[in-house]
Design brief:
Elements: E1 2-4, H1 28-37, E2 58-61, H2 68-77, E3 88-92, H3 102-111, E4 115-117, H4 120-130, H5 139-147, H6 150-157, E5 162-164
Parallel strand pairs: 2-3, 3-4
Antiparallel strand pairs: 1-5
Helix pairs in contact: 2-3
Length: 171
Amino acid sequence: LEMSTSSSTSDVASTSTSTTTPTTTLSSEDFQKELKKAKYAYRPQDSDDGDDGKSPRTIVVGDVHGCAQELELLLHKCGFDREGRGDDLVLVGDLVGKGPDSLGVLDLAMKHKACCVVGNHDAIFLKWKKMPDETPLFEDYLAIAKTLKPRHWTYMQSWPYYFKLPKYKVI
């Protein structure tokens, strides 16, 4: 895995700037119901993608935007298994902002040892952290920024602006 922390605009991976509708956080009971419904959403034996259900995979997800429950549900649906199967999780920018649980997204990413790329929304937070007096944030982003713990900032500051996955011919 090749990484770059260069911040020149030619090196920054492009990210979607589409707007999303606000999401609501499911109650614990409703979330458990959703997980049960998703139990067999991904079955390698029904797939024609060559997945034998045992070999490690690289799961790539983008634009999570603070939606921790949705990320957790998506990982469950695709059968993500870091410990047993050795799957890798790649989060391609915009982990924080917009949704209800940016801290939850960062905690999930850290838990799964995800490789993350800085997205434009993430870059806004990182710029604010570096120069708070020179970087105005909207009220909702300021509220998120003030709740991030030192471990979250350290984690975000370690992300590159791009990395290469030569196996898949992807940058």
